[in-house]
Amino acid sequence: MNKKLKVVLIGAGNRGITYTDIMAKYPENFEVVAVAEPIKSRRDHVKDRHNIDEKYCFEDYKPLLELGKIADIAVISTMDREHYDATMQAIGLKYDVMLEKPIAPTASECLEITKSAKENGVKILICTVLRYTAFFNKIKEIIDSGTLGRVMAIDHTEAVGNIHQTHSFVRGNWGNSKRSSSMLLQKSCHDIDILEWLIGKKCKKVQSFGTRSFFTRENAPSGSAEYCIGGCKYGESCPYNAVKLYLDDKKNYWFRSTSTREDAPSDQTVENALRNTQYGKCVYKCDNDVVDHQTVNMFFDGDVTVTFNMNAFSTGDRTIHIMGTKCDLYASMNGNDTPIRIVDLITKKETVIPVSGKDGIVGGHGGGDEGIVNTLYDYILDNYRGNRVPEIEESCYNHMIVFAAEKSRENGTVEDVDKFLADL
Ligand SMILES: NC(=O)c1ccc[n+]([C@@H]2O[C@H](COP(=O)([O-])OP(=O)(O)OC[C@H]3O[C@@H](n4cnc5c(N)ncnc54)[C@H](O)[C@@H]3O)[C@@H](O)[C@H]2O)c1
């Protein structure tokens, strides 16, 4: 018979509910036994979904952790700046932890969490969910099979999308780095991580450029209103009109629940959010400070050169072009059936590999959300035999590449990652 793993959830927001809703589909594997979440409707969602006794439902993680270790796994999915304290306490209680990315917003906190996890002998699985998608697993399999020859260079783009950018990184939770972290850390640590995993070698040097150049007050159309709902004269033509995006589009549960911070938002609560929070503000007049476009150049062991490009100015996509000595590979993860195309450099023969059907893009993050929850089960029980789960040291090193890239972007330098680490 399966061992059932007990889970406590700290932070029942979008991510925490996503993971524990998936766990509810596998009751033979997981039992969510406690929740800490200050927002009642979110806390109640988890309580009801998992039949949790009221005495194990808390408004804050501290009283939950004061109970001692009452489960096998702590899922920690609070906001970036709230990861450190809860994670350190959970590690101290010897919980295995599934921790949302980024590990923490500063390099020193990431290193401390990593050190403490090792000292306490606990597992920490960071939610770099792209590793669990059929799309990137197929690409990894192709690289490791040698089909491409020696990988020489990669060109990878995370086109966040203009609407997603304004929702999350202008108006939303991650627009201001003082409340969250840098764009590269909070959004693109996924991409830096996946590149390191695909290449299977260490990044030695890094250099970055990037600015916030478009979503700024100077670019606001002349005479535009502060809040869209006040009747801005650009309301009809502006793609970022919050009334259309949040109030009129009833199907966009993601936008409506994030803006209201409610589990079941009504039109009234959405309207309140548009009148009283940044979700209703003109995208050129928010307090955002994170970049809206950024490039990172990386030089890996084995002389592999990599260019990563994050930007807001697209409809949203991830594309990767891998150049090997025998073949090159091009693939786009656009949320539907997305074939991988391989072209032989000598014969010019093209091979198209479908990533669809049962192996394809199902559920959030191209199937990555479901994938990580399933992998978590085997990983915690020491039954996992694949190559996609990073040890915490590997996740931490990949975060260090990000911190070094940010140092480069701020100072106009080229950073040696090992030296950057040693200097810390
Ligand atoms: N893996 C991914 O692809 C991915 C995607 C989006 C976000 N994230 C990361 O996941 C984390 C959560 O993001 P989200 O979108 O779910 O945010 P969210 O705001 O929806 O959820 C965070 C929750 O934590 C709760 N919280 C705040 N203080 C608390 C406390 N003291 N005790 C318990 N709960 C508390 C909040 O009320 C909120 O409901 C962030 O670190 C974010 O960067 C990861």
Report on the architecture of this protein:
By secondary structure, the protein is of the alpha/beta class. Helix content is 36%, strand content 20%. It has a 9-stranded mixed beta sheet with strand order 14-13-12-11-7-10-9-8-15. Strands 3-2-1-4-5-6 form a 6-stranded parallel beta sheet, sandwiched between helices. Helix 2 (40-50) links the parallel strand 2 (30-36) and strand 3 (57-58). Helix 11 crosses helix 12 (267-276). The longest helix is centred in the last third of the chain and has 20 residues, at 392-411. It is globular. Residues 357-362 have low confidence and may be disordered. Residues 10-16, 36-39, 42, 60-61, 77-80, 82, 100-101, 127, 129, 173, 186, 365 line the site of nicotinamide-adenine-dinucleotide (NAD).
